[in-house]
Amino acid sequence: MPTDTPVIAYLFTTFPNPTETFLQREVIAMRSKGVSLELYSMFGGASSFRGMPVTRFSMWRLLTLFWLIPYEGMRKPKVLGQLLKGLLTRKAPSWINFWENMLGAGFACYYARKFRKHRPTLIHAAWGGAPATAAWIFAQIDGHRYSAAAHAYDLFEHGGDWWLNEKLKPAYFIHTSTQMGRTELLKRGIEDSRIHCIRRGLDRIAPLKSLRALRIPLRLLCIARLVDKKGIDHQLRIYAALKASGIPFKARIVGEGPLRSTLEKLAGSLGIAADVTFEGHLNQHEVWTALSQSDVLLHTGVIAPSGDRDGLPNVIPEAMSIGVLVITSPTAATTEAITDGISGLVLPVDEPARWVDALKRLSQDDPYAEHLRIAARQWVIDNFDAHHNAARLFTHFQQAIAS
Q1: How far is CA 338 from CA 6, 331, 334, 368, in A?
Q2: Is the pTM of this model over 0.90?
Q3: CATH architecture, range 7-202+385-402
Q4: Tell me: the pLDDT tens digits for 78-115?
Q5: Which end of the chain is more exposed for a tag (fewer CB within 10 A), N or C?
Q6: Which CATH architecture has domain 218-383?
Q7: What DSSP designation does 384 have?
């Protein structure tokens, strides 16, 4: 039975993950509401976060599944039968997604006894992959109540997670952070009343920096993982067109990923290696320093061959909050924050000449740049406060617990 003090077991794939600062902010904001949290990381991460212990799942524990799976299978043969039928009758969209689901299933089998003995009031899966698999199995074998989050990766990578619909339909509610995600969930047949679009957020909104009086050379910034969906190759061609037009600039690309060497070679072949710096991964305070030193943030997101795409990358509202101008592609949910000509600019990535014209204007037209900056910051204040958004999420946790 639930304890007198409600306890929410938060399940993560990896926590804390340096590229998932939105989840760290969510946890910080939840703690500020007085929520009692148990944090679980299924793959790597740290043993603590801001003074809170994080229970990490060791891969060695998977060896115990040789006897735990038969034990849990005998307790709930229908659940085991459902899982085996799914394994035999459907094909996983990718090996990564297959193993993510297997990780979630292994985690659930290992921790089932603990969750029976020390029953959390609510389980919340921070992702629709491994965490939601674990939450679904906990619910199937022991009747645990759970909620789940579904983000762009869960919904679109290779057509979406393998078991996503089955995992989400029994959830008390589903949290998504974009209207794009909400629309996709509705297409999948999830009830409208159980889908809640609650954006991520900033735990504090920094002061608005001054518009740099002389924006020559133009200081350009990109913060992104170096993967297909970020469209960095398009961005490099924009820089080449900018150089050809004679507009002085310095560009910084912050982030790591498997495409780094390919992109560095492309920069060299385009003749912009001296103008573009690949800086690798930076800590969060270094990211804010980079933003404070920049004039314009460029986001050239595309739909990757796998179908993966961005939701609304945190870095866009981060830049908007302190007065960095933003130009983005129209792909995915970025236009939920950037309205063309009002809070930033939206341009197709395959038309570099238009990006050149836009950057030239932003480097010279102070009233126009100031108009965009003020509107962008107001959007963040209205929509991207982590504490306000966490309070909304907490309300749904309370409703799930109370019912």
Answers
A1: 38, 11, 6, 15
A2: no
A3: 3-Layer(aba) Sandwich (3.40)
A4: 766 777 777 767 788 888 998 898 889 889 988 998 99
A5: N
A6: 3-Layer(aba) Sandwich (3.40)
A7: -
